[in-house]
Amino acid sequence: MISMSFGFTEETGELYDEIKRCLQADIMVFAAASNGAGEGSRAHPAKFSRVICVHSATSQGKGSDDNPPTEGDQNWSVVGEHIRPTWHTHVPKDCIIDYKSGTSFATPVAVSIAAFMIAYIEKNWPNCSWVIEPRSPEGVMKIFKLMSTKIGGYDWVSPTKYMKVNKDKRFGDLQETLGCRTGDNQGDKKN
Protein backbone atom coordinates (compact mmCIF):
# COMPACT_ATOMS: atom_id res chain seq x y z
CA MET A 1 0.00 0.00 0.00
CA ILE A 2 1.16 3.50 -0.78
CA SER A 3 -0.04 6.54 1.18
CA MET A 4 0.32 9.95 -0.50
CA SER A 5 -0.55 12.86 1.76
CA PHE A 6 -0.14 15.47 -0.94
CA GLY A 7 -1.76 16.71 -4.10
CA PHE A 8 -1.10 18.85 -7.15
CA THR A 9 -3.44 21.00 -9.20
CA GLU A 10 -2.08 19.55 -12.44
CA GLU A 11 -1.15 16.03 -13.49
CA THR A 12 2.55 15.24 -13.39
CA GLY A 13 3.69 12.74 -16.03
CA GLU A 14 6.40 10.92 -14.08
CA LEU A 15 4.20 10.52 -11.00
CA TYR A 16 1.28 9.32 -13.12
CA ASP A 17 3.50 6.76 -14.88
CA GLU A 18 4.76 5.39 -11.57
CA ILE A 19 1.25 5.21 -10.10
CA LYS A 20 0.06 3.44 -13.24
CA ARG A 21 2.79 0.81 -12.81
CA CYS A 22 1.81 0.32 -9.17
CA LEU A 23 -1.87 -0.07 -9.99
CA GLN A 24 -1.09 -2.55 -12.78
CA ALA A 25 0.70 -4.61 -10.12
CA ASP A 26 -2.42 -4.31 -7.88
CA ILE A 27 -0.57 -2.15 -5.37
CA MET A 28 -3.11 -0.02 -3.55
CA VAL A 29 -2.53 3.72 -3.82
CA PHE A 30 -4.26 6.11 -1.41
CA ALA A 31 -4.10 9.88 -1.96
CA ALA A 32 -5.32 12.97 -0.15
CA ALA A 33 -8.35 14.57 -1.84
CA SER A 34 -7.19 18.17 -1.30
CA ASN A 35 -7.57 20.84 1.36
CA GLY A 36 -8.92 23.46 -1.03
CA ALA A 37 -12.49 23.33 0.36
CA GLY A 38 -15.17 24.76 -1.93
CA GLU A 39 -12.58 26.85 -3.75
CA GLY A 40 -10.62 23.84 -4.93
CA SER A 41 -11.23 20.50 -6.59
CA ARG A 42 -9.88 17.00 -6.14
CA ALA A 43 -6.12 17.05 -6.53
CA HIS A 44 -3.79 14.84 -8.54
CA PRO A 45 -2.99 12.00 -7.88
CA ALA A 46 -6.32 11.50 -6.04
CA LYS A 47 -8.05 12.13 -9.40
CA PHE A 48 -6.33 9.18 -11.06
CA SER A 49 -8.49 6.18 -11.91
CA ARG A 50 -8.26 3.36 -9.32
CA VAL A 51 -6.43 5.59 -6.81
CA ILE A 52 -8.32 5.59 -3.51
CA CYS A 53 -9.15 9.24 -2.89
CA VAL A 54 -9.46 10.11 0.81
CA HIS A 55 -11.48 12.97 2.32
CA SER A 56 -11.32 14.12 5.92
CA ALA A 57 -14.15 13.89 8.48
CA THR A 58 -14.84 14.49 12.14
CA SER A 59 -15.03 11.52 14.50
CA GLN A 60 -18.81 11.52 13.90
CA GLY A 61 -18.44 11.32 10.12
CA LYS A 62 -19.25 14.92 9.18
CA GLY A 63 -17.12 16.00 6.23
CA SER A 64 -14.37 18.48 7.06
CA ASP A 65 -14.69 22.08 5.92
CA ASP A 66 -11.39 21.74 4.03
CA ASN A 67 -12.65 18.93 1.76
CA PRO A 68 -13.08 19.67 -1.93
CA PRO A 69 -16.54 19.09 -3.42
CA THR A 70 -17.48 15.46 -4.04
CA GLU A 71 -16.82 13.94 -7.48
CA GLY A 72 -18.30 10.79 -8.96
CA ASP A 73 -19.47 7.93 -6.81
CA GLN A 74 -16.42 7.28 -4.60
CA ASN A 75 -15.92 9.94 -1.99
CA TRP A 76 -14.40 8.03 0.92
CA SER A 77 -14.02 9.91 4.19
CA VAL A 78 -12.33 8.83 7.39
CA VAL A 79 -11.29 10.60 10.57
CA GLY A 80 -8.98 13.43 9.59
CA GLU A 81 -9.90 16.08 12.14
CA HIS A 82 -7.77 16.62 15.26
CA ILE A 83 -5.25 13.87 14.54
CA ARG A 84 -2.34 13.67 16.94
CA PRO A 85 0.83 13.33 14.89
CA THR A 86 3.28 10.77 16.25
CA TRP A 87 6.35 11.25 14.10
CA HIS A 88 8.50 12.36 17.05
CA THR A 89 10.25 9.46 18.75
CA HIS A 90 10.93 11.36 21.98
CA VAL A 91 8.69 14.21 23.05
CA PRO A 92 9.77 16.25 26.10
CA LYS A 93 7.19 16.24 28.91
CA ASP A 94 6.72 20.01 28.67
CA CYS A 95 6.17 19.93 24.89
CA ILE A 96 2.71 20.83 23.61
CA ILE A 97 1.71 18.67 20.67
CA ASP A 98 -0.51 20.30 18.07
CA TYR A 99 -3.36 18.26 16.68
CA LYS A 100 -3.60 18.39 12.89
CA SER A 101 -6.52 18.19 10.46
CA GLY A 102 -7.07 17.63 6.76
CA THR A 103 -7.06 15.07 4.01
CA SER A 104 -3.29 14.59 4.36
CA PHE A 105 -3.87 13.27 7.86
CA ALA A 106 -6.95 11.25 6.88
CA THR A 107 -5.05 9.37 4.17
CA PRO A 108 -2.82 7.27 6.48
CA VAL A 109 -5.89 6.58 8.63
CA ALA A 110 -7.63 5.11 5.56
CA VAL A 111 -4.53 2.99 4.85
CA SER A 112 -4.66 1.70 8.44
CA ILE A 113 -8.34 0.77 8.11
CA ALA A 114 -7.63 -1.08 4.86
CA ALA A 115 -4.67 -2.94 6.38
CA PHE A 116 -6.73 -3.94 9.42
CA MET A 117 -9.60 -5.25 7.30
CA ILE A 118 -7.30 -7.17 4.95
CA ALA A 119 -5.57 -8.80 7.94
CA TYR A 120 -8.98 -9.64 9.44
CA ILE A 121 -10.14 -11.24 6.18
CA GLU A 122 -6.93 -13.24 5.71
CA LYS A 123 -7.01 -14.50 9.30
CA ASN A 124 -10.67 -15.53 9.27
CA TRP A 125 -10.92 -16.97 5.74
CA PRO A 126 -7.49 -18.39 4.90
CA ASN A 127 -8.96 -21.01 2.54
CA CYS A 128 -10.87 -18.60 0.30
CA SER A 129 -9.97 -18.14 -3.30
CA TRP A 130 -11.26 -14.63 -3.90
CA VAL A 131 -13.09 -13.46 -7.01
CA ILE A 132 -12.07 -9.90 -6.03
CA GLU A 133 -8.74 -9.95 -4.23
CA PRO A 134 -8.97 -8.06 -0.89
CA ARG A 135 -5.40 -6.78 -1.47
CA SER A 136 -6.36 -4.99 -4.70
CA PRO A 137 -7.65 -1.44 -5.21
CA GLU A 138 -11.04 -2.90 -6.25
CA GLY A 139 -11.09 -5.13 -3.17
CA VAL A 140 -10.41 -2.25 -0.80
CA MET A 141 -13.08 -0.14 -2.49
CA LYS A 142 -15.59 -3.00 -2.06
CA ILE A 143 -14.61 -3.35 1.60
CA PHE A 144 -14.92 0.42 2.13
CA LYS A 145 -18.34 0.39 0.45
CA LEU A 146 -19.55 -2.25 2.93
CA MET A 147 -18.20 -0.22 5.84
CA SER A 148 -19.50 3.16 4.71
CA THR A 149 -22.53 5.30 5.40
CA LYS A 150 -23.46 8.27 3.23
CA ILE A 151 -23.09 11.45 5.30
CA GLY A 152 -23.29 14.84 3.62
CA GLY A 153 -22.35 13.44 0.20
CA TYR A 154 -19.28 11.60 1.53
CA ASP A 155 -18.94 7.86 2.11
CA TRP A 156 -18.02 7.76 5.81
CA VAL A 157 -15.90 4.64 6.41
CA SER A 158 -16.32 3.62 10.04
CA PRO A 159 -14.76 0.38 11.27
CA THR A 160 -16.37 0.88 14.69
CA LYS A 161 -19.88 1.12 13.28
CA TYR A 162 -19.29 -1.75 10.85
CA MET A 163 -17.99 -4.04 13.61
CA LYS A 164 -20.95 -3.20 15.89
CA VAL A 165 -23.54 -3.81 13.16
CA ASN A 166 -21.95 -7.12 12.13
CA LYS A 167 -21.09 -8.36 15.62
CA ASP A 168 -23.37 -11.42 15.41
CA LYS A 169 -23.29 -11.98 11.63
CA ARG A 170 -19.66 -13.18 11.37
CA PHE A 171 -19.11 -10.75 8.50
CA GLY A 172 -20.56 -12.97 5.79
CA ASP A 173 -21.12 -9.85 3.69
CA LEU A 174 -17.35 -9.64 3.18
CA GLN A 175 -17.27 -13.17 1.79
CA GLU A 176 -20.26 -12.49 -0.43
CA THR A 177 -19.03 -9.13 -1.74
CA LEU A 178 -15.47 -10.26 -2.46
CA GLY A 179 -16.57 -13.69 -3.72
CA CYS A 180 -15.12 -16.34 -1.44
CA ARG A 181 -14.75 -19.62 -3.36
CA THR A 182 -14.14 -22.58 -1.05
CA GLY A 183 -16.95 -24.82 -2.24
CA ASP A 184 -18.94 -24.58 0.96
CA ASN A 185 -17.61 -21.27 2.41
CA GLN A 186 -16.56 -23.16 5.54
CA GLY A 187 -13.00 -21.85 5.50
CA ASP A 188 -13.96 -19.73 8.49
CA LYS A 189 -11.99 -19.54 11.69
CA LYS A 190 -13.54 -18.42 14.94
CA ASN A 191 -13.71 -14.63 15.38
Give a quick rundown of the structure:
The chain is of the alpha/beta class and 191 residues long. The protein has helices at 13-24, 103-124, 137-147, 159-165, 172-178; strands at 2-4, 29-32, 52-57, 76-79, 129-130, 148-151, 154-157, 180-181.
Walk me through what this model shows.
With 191 residues, this protein is an alpha/beta fold. The protein has one domain (2-85, 96-181): Peptidase S8/S53 domain (Rossmann fold, 3-Layer(aba) Sandwich). It has helices at 13-24, 103-124, 137-147, 159-165, 172-178, and strands at 2-4, 29-32, 52-57, 76-79, 129-130, 148-151, 154-157, 180-181. The strands form two sheets. Strands 1-2-3-4-7-6 form a six-stranded mixed beta sheet. Strand 1, helix 1 and strand 2 (29-32) form a beta-alpha-beta unit. Helix 3 runs antiparallel to helix 5.
List keywords for this structure.
191 residues; alpha/beta; Rossmann fold; six-stranded mixed β-sheet
